[in-house]
């Protein structure tokens, strides 16, 4: 269901206000409205993915699509809480759907069992404005909110064959034959004439390979879709985001109250008291680089070498783990502990050598602590990642730029920027 | 050779499946915590919570759904968590942890206790029980985007009460009654008014003008004269507000004119108050009714977020008074209502009364939404902060169970990364404080009070229970005879309640031994008699700074402790300013600053 309304119209119902009360009191009604108009694609519903899914669904986004081609294994039940213990053999996204939906019936949750690698480029664009205009600034048109109008728009756009069954809301099955469309040229140009950047939609990739993430990131960058990546390996986890070259947001700052220039004691000079807790919203902008750029930092330059002391080693650990995944097609497995440990050690040597860095930058210690997905680590990384998605969708508060690394053994959570200056 | 079960060492995985743990609280942190415990492999979990599920919990307490509203949190949390691992053993208690059933023996069953609480009294209590049972305790708290986790182990670390925590802010009586300058003063006044009219009348919650306000007197002799004069003035002092309201049948217009016109006009006669302040402007019901807007513009948006006009709040006042009057009537003779932010007429009443007062004192009026935040002490809360903190709790728990207590840390979750790029800041745990009035070997305090004016009941409720966190105190006087002043057995020493301490021979230098047997806690109190206490202050604990304005930021002591006392477990400090960038107060933080800023969490 599309809400073709002016941004200023209240979209929060009394029911939503009651449920979201405690978060509206934190980030404000405006931010909640923007969340309410956003759609997110979440690829990967393992331990980390489940945490992110929960956090976004509870936050009250408009729609969340769970995309995962994996099957539920015996270990899956230990790893994440959306999959029932009886669901072995089923597709992971589909098995997670019911519990995910029950977290918040006001969010449209979909499951897609496909492989993200197999999706054509324009699959990702389906999460943008072309025909799911979550938040389009158009002049108020005499356009009813009804189902028929939605379908009329689809017909006009003539792209319906690209929509698979999973992309239609399960509760709003179309009943008209819309391929013949009603042709509303003015409306089409009004829709397409608008900057797709106004659309609120994002893509979040968990547990994906390096090449895949780089590819999706590049594609989404071209179309103003914000991308988040993250993964958990044992006691280590990370998050990366690319919010585009120009991410706009607001920050709440306390209002500075200047005392009156004169200080007469007469009562007539006394103004009404200003509430000392008043704040004001300041507009800001920040830029992000692509994942490719972030991973391909050159460490041979003098400047880079100088900065090495203050660089979290987690960044290099990430390279090692990404390479392991690329080489073996999987993550380190406790069942193959001896072989995988050996391989990790080797890859560590190779990666550091290739970056022209010393091998003792990252010592052997990490090896036995990066196996499997640990639930509390998924909770921490999923919490930070989830909140970053919320911030980007609501365009409120400075985003973490551009990596977050969590080391559960030390209790360290670090934010750092990697990429061209 | 290292053997892994999932991510964990085999020995650790095995001990998880056999050990018993206790989770105190099944709310925001508790739900996330239960999920993490079950998924990590804990098999024996007990959870306790006295509360039931409310719709406002559903944005973060994800083990609950709409259909569960009204049910026991502990019970539903258990059922939902079991779905993640049906073979786990989870026991749920719909009860208060302060119930004497949960004695030291109960606590000794557990290898680990994890708090997921939202109030200080319960935290104090669990702290003492864990000290008594010598069980490690993981403490935590969240508020908005901020959070904190720490570990408490008897003899090794600070206990929860080693560092004095800022007490709840209170306002002086004359600010509430005579010279409010901020909306919160008007809201507190409105809550007092509710109690005076419909609830339990409290001598400390007067709403009428305070004629003994020292600020009102032109010279000191004046204050005393005014005080005596007011005692003779029956209208304000002698007849209780409730009795007066009853006598008018809770007539809302009469009430309105008394509170918002007559009393304000009285305040205006205290002209010294208004020399340097804008004077309040009284309201008149009839005038307002005559001037009321003819057309009511239809409101758009959420009802609660609107700010009405003055007449709107007059009407709200009238409606809520009528509803509350009926509620009171229904409850019967001599009954009282208890204010509850989730009871609509009670909330309406405070919204209306506070706003009318704000208007009188030239403050911008506030929406019901904003008034509710302040009146209800609502702390904003989201799922993600709780998720992070609960994850950290389990990670500390794993260290404890691996016997690696020295690797445990206090971890702060900031909103923004600090100067060292840290969003999560681990800090080494402090050793116990030698003077701690809870965990020192023979805890002792000195309390300043007036033995002629402090009653036994006050000692019990305000000092021992509220201030020193006892639940069921027993008090003996150290007079060689072991005279019993207070007995925790109901009724035994009730006759002493309204007597003054001085009546029992207690005077300057006397010592009292206070015990709480449930908490296995004995506190020796040295009495310091004084006749000079600040206005509205009943007692003072010696050695503690009164809770006033925040400490100056750049004093020498603090700078030293920043550079010398850096507890961050990473590299040594490289800058002379505070390393712990507190995104809450935006200063470089010392530990004292952090405690103050994060005090909202505890």
From TrEMBL, chain A:
Give a GO cellular-component term.
cytoplasm
Question: What is an example of a Pfam family matching this protein?
Answer: ThiF
Q: Tell me the InterPro entries matching this sequence.
A: ThiF/MoeB/HesA, ThiF_NAD_FAD-bd, Ubiquitin-activating_enz
Concerning Gene3D superfamilies, the annotation shows: NAD(P)-binding Rossmann-like Domain (3.40.50.720)
Q: Which family does it belong to?
A: Belongs to the ubiquitin-activating E1 family.
Query: In which domain of life is the source organism classified?
Result: Eukaryota
* Stretches assigned to the THIF-type NAD/FAD binding fold domain: 20-129, 206-412
PANTHER family linked to this entry? SUMO-ACTIVATING ENZYME SUBUNIT 1, UBIQUITIN-ACTIVATING ENZYME E1
Any GO MF annotation of the entry: SUMO activating enzyme activity
Q: Name one GO biological process term.
A: definitive hemopoiesis
The protein in question is named: SUMO1 activating enzyme subunit 1
From TrEMBL, chain B:
**Broad enzyme group:** transferase
One GO BP on record is: protein sumoylation
- Asked whether the UniProt record includes Secreted among its keywords, one would answer no
One annotated GO molecular function = SUMO activating enzyme activity
Q: Which residue range or ranges hold the Ubiquitin/SUMO-activating enzyme ubiquitin-like domain?
A: 447-534
User: Domain SUMO-activating enzyme subunit 2 C-terminal spans what residues?
Assistant: 544-578
Going by the UniProt record, its keywords in alphabetical order are: ATP-binding, Metal-binding, Nucleotide-binding, Nucleus, Transferase, Ubl conjugation, Ubl conjugation pathway, Zinc
Query: What is the annotated quaternary arrangement, including any partners?
Result: Heterodimer of SAE1 and UBA2/SAE2. The heterodimer corresponds to the two domains that are encoded on a single polypeptide chain in ubiquitin-activating enzyme E1. Interacts with UBE2I.
Q: What protein am I looking at? A: SUMO-activating enzyme subunit 2
Q: Which organism encodes this protein?
A: Amphiprion ocellaris
